[in-house]
Every structure is written in C-alpha cells, then in structure tokens.
Amino acid sequence: MAMVFTLTSYDVPRQWTALTDARGQRLFGPCAMTYAAEPDGPGASRIVCRLAAAAGGMRTLRAHALAWGDLVMMRKQLRTLRDLAERDARTAGPDAPAPTS
C-alpha cells in the first residue's frame, strides 16, 4: 500500500496527526488528518477523526470527493481501533491501572 500521509505529531495515547506528503498532495491536495480519543463519560471514550482539506476552485471539488471516498476507509479504521481497544480492556481486566502518558 502506498502511503500518502506523513505523521507530523502525536500524543500517545490521545491523538495523532498526519499531513499529505508530496504524492498525497498530487492526488488530493493539501490535507491534514487527526485521530483523537475524547472522553465520553466515566470510564468511556470515543475516537474522532477529523479531515481538513484545502478549498477553492477544483480543490473544493477534490476535497468533497476525498471526504466521501474516505468515509468507507475511515469507518473501517475506527472499527478496527475500537476492536483493539476493547480487546486490550478485556485482557487488562477491571483492576488494571489506567494508561499514563
């Protein structure tokens, strides 16, 4: 699989952000993507993905196409992350200490 994003920042276990690399910019234009874990009540969290793309002229059309096309991939990625987090929570058990950064 060819990569189109370069990791630019992260805060384990809270978030990571990536920007399109040269190949990604040729395909999609300048874009940034962030996955973040956000609190969602006591002992719960949710994973949110934000995609920001440059607008203006053809870039706007390309950004809309990217957003709809990426929806399927993003859904799969979020479901995989959810499954891994739930697996790790079951393995750790209820008495395990919370992860620290």
Q: What does this protein structure show overall?
A:
This protein has one domain (5-88). It is an alpha+beta fold. A hairpin with a 3-residue loop joins strand 1 (5-11) and strand 2 (15-20). A four-stranded antiparallel β-sheet has the order 1-2-3-4. The protein is 42% helix and 31% strand. The protein has helices spanning 22-28, 58-92; strands spanning 5-11, 15-20, 31-39, 45-53.
Distance from N terminus to C terminus (CA atoms, Å) equals 31 Å
Radius of gyration: 16 Å
Helix proportion range: 40-55%
**Beta strand count:** 4
Low-confidence stretches: none
Main sheet attributes: strand count, strand direction, barrel closure: 4 strands, antiparallel
Give, in order, the helices and strands: EEHEEH
Largest sheet, spatial ordering of strands: 1-2-3-4
Which structural category do the helix and sheet elements fall into?
Answer: alpha+beta
The total of helices stands at 2
Label the overall shape: elongated
Count the domains. Answer: 1
Highlighted features:
101 residues; Polyketide cyclase / dehydrase and lipid transport; alpha+beta; elongated; 2 helices
In short:
With 101 residues, the protein is of the alpha+beta class. It has 2 helices and 4 strands.
